[in-house]
Amino acid sequence: MSLIVHKYGGTSMGSIERIQNVARRVAKWHAAGHQVVVVPSAMSGETNRLLGLAKELSIQPDPRELDMLAATGEQASSALLAMALAAQGVPARSYAGWQVPVQTDNAYTRARIRSIDDTRIRQDLDAGRVVVVTGFQGVDEEGNITTLGRGGSDTSAVAVAAAMKASECLIYTDVDGVYTTDPRVVPEARRMKVLSFEEMLEMASLGSKVLQIRSVEFAGKYRVPVRVLSSMTDPMIPLEEEMSSGTLITFEEDQKMEAAVVSGIAFSRDEAKFTLRAVPDTPGVAYSILGPIAAANIEVDMILQNLSVQGTTDFSFTVSRNDALRTKELLMNQVGPAVGAGEIVFDEAVCKVSIVGIGMRNHAGIASSMFRALSEEGINIQMISTSEIKTSVIIADKYMELAVRALHKTFELDQEK
Ligand code: ADP
Ligand code: ASP
Ligand code: MG
Q1: Residue 179, annotated ligand binder?
Q2: Within the chain, what is the greatest distance between any pair of CA atoms?
Q3: Over 70: is that where the pLDDT of 255 sits?
């Protein structure tokens, strides 16, 4: 007997029939003698619907109230799943984040989990029940409901698995694993049977929404074995078959070292680029520009400073599109005048495309193959950033899909290895 955490995403929980299918699958694991904690997302579309209602009332709704609202989606789906399990003869109990409790900090809409008290969950498991814990939410020190950011149920599940030392965290979703790139954009994308934790971390941080980045961070910190697999298969397939399906995130690097140099391609439209023209090229200018941005809790991603021409330089950086409005206000009203910048240019029609692979550590020239492939498609590179296992470029938004397909081909990711 082992303790397993299952996570089901919005599509997997998307209708009563699908919830019944989830219950069948969970019942199968329970009947095989496993202790199961299930972490569901809200039914698909529900979180967007709720946040949309809030936007009808205010352009910038109070984040505390947003969390109070958004958390209801998971409360509903969790209760429905517990009922579906009971209807199939499986004793089950659902809990909201605050009831567990899942303690978080108080950063509404993007809270971080601090601790999870597993006492109540264990009591239920020991009494033979399946425990359903709402994804995406927690409670701060003062008892306010918080949420963990979009896609946060992945993080809830991995954090519960870490806290309870579960033997595996199974992330059931609408694809059958992690692919070389998003199969919705490149139909030739291939599923990877294993993927190193570091590569998954890069893929997630560079825009592959298949797992929320914080869930991967948790998995790394607590060494939680995570498998991404399909919830769309027959729920009654044998356990052994299920356990060897999908993609396992592995901490063993050695087996991957011989494998492909580039493992996957990630992309993100969540980018906004700012350029301050003709800023004085003097010591401290980067700090004068980015200091106030950091102080406003806005994360800067890529930075580019041009060579000085007659004592001035152009300074560009990117932020997440969610922060674009606040960044623009800061630059126009505060930073621009303070540093004596010329024109301030804002561009939201950009995206980031990245190649990722731990094999890049030992191979030179990978970045240049990337640049060549993009140039052959006539795609202009606006900014570049590299680390040991990834190269990212900022390009015009309209070329995103073309770029991803071209790179997928260049690095032969469509071919069986
Ligand atoms: P869930 O609701 O189950 O959390 P998500 O929509 O958050 O599901 O994540 C699954 C989706 O992630 C897939 O439908 C797919 O379009 C997208 N995706 C993006 N990049 C990848 C990738 N590299 N491999 C697999 N899926 C990916
Ligand atoms: N329901 C939340 C969202 O849509 C959390 C999740 O699905 O993981 O972002
Ligand atoms: Mg998700």
Answers
A1: yes
A2: 78
A3: no
pLDDT per position as a tens digit, 327-351: 999 999 999 999 988 899 999 999 9
- Note the pLDDT tens digit of each residue in 18-34: 999 999 999 999 999 99
SS3 content of the chain, % helix, strand, coil (to 5): 40, 25, 35
Separation between Cα atoms, residue 383 and residue 269, nearest integer Å: 15
pTM over 0.90, yes/no: yes
Q: Taking CA 125 as the corner, what is the angle to CA 111 and CA 238, rounded to the nearest 5 degrees?
A: 95
Give the number of the atom of ligand 2 that is nearest the alpha carbon of residue 212: 8
What are the C-alpha distances in Å from 77 to residues 22, 110, 134, 365? 11, 21, 8, 49
DSSP-derived pairing of the beta strands 350-356 and 390-396? antiparallel
Is 343 known to sit in a ligand binding site? Answer: no
Q: Tell whether ligand 2 has an atom less than 6 A from the beta carbon of residue 8.
A: no
Contact 323, 299 (CB under 8 A): yes
What's the pLDDT tens digit per position in 108-163? Answer: 999 999 999 999 999 999 999 999 999 999 999 999 999 999 999 999 999 999 99
Domains of the chain: 3-175+210-253 (3.40.1160.10), 272-347 (3.30.2130.10)
Cis check for the bond before 292: say yes or no (omega within 30 of 0): no
Length of the chain: 417
Cα 7 from Cα 135, distance rounded (Å): 8
Summarize pLDDT for 194-234 with one digit per residue, the tens: 999 999 999 999 999 999 999 999 999 999 999 999 999 99
CA distance 313 to 301: 19
Closest ligand 1 atom, residue 12 Cα:
3
> Which residue owns the Cα nearest ligand 1 atom 5?
210
Please, where are the H alpha helices in 119-253? Answer: 119-126, 153-163, 197-205, 213-222, 239-243
Q: Dihedral of CA 375/378/379/383: which sign?
A: positive
182 lines ligand 1 (CB under 6 A): yes
Tokens of 373: 């492939």
Which amino acid is residue 30, in one-letter code?
H
235-274 burial, b for 16+ CB within 10 Å, e for fewer?
beeeeeebeebbbbbbeeeeebeeebbbbbbbbbebbbbb
Contact between 187 and 244 under an 8 Å Cβ cutoff? The reply is: no
